[in-house]
Each structure stands twice: as structure tokens, then as C-alpha cells.
Amino acid sequence: MWWIVAAVVALGIVIGVVMLVVYAVRLYRQARAVMTEAAGTMKHLETVTELLGQIRIPDRQLDRTDVG
Fold this sequence. Notes:
With 68 residues, this protein is mainly alpha-helical. The chain is built from 1 helix and no strands.
């Protein structure tokens, strides 16, 4: 009779471990997807920054009548 109790406890432990592994895999996949998206966003921002750096804006001198 004690072996039935031991089998149920062992089964519960196995199910718990499997659930933890499935949860960890889901978190890993989600984190990887977020990091991939973040890397793409960073690449986009680098491109935009590079393009903005190529724009030359002429310096304007303020007319003294505009002050005050």
C-alpha cells in the first residue's frame, strides 16, 4: 500500500518538474523574441541617427531686432 502513495508523490513531482520546464521554455522564447525585436529597433535607430547626422542645417544669426 505504501508504494501507491510513493507512486502518487513521484508522479506529482514529475508533473511539477515538467510544468516548470515548459514555463521556462516559454519565458526563454518570449525573451528571445523581445531581444530580437529590440535589436531590430536599435538597428533602425542607428540608421535614422546616421541619416540625421548627414543633414546640414545652416547657422542663422539672430537679427538684433528680434531680441526683447
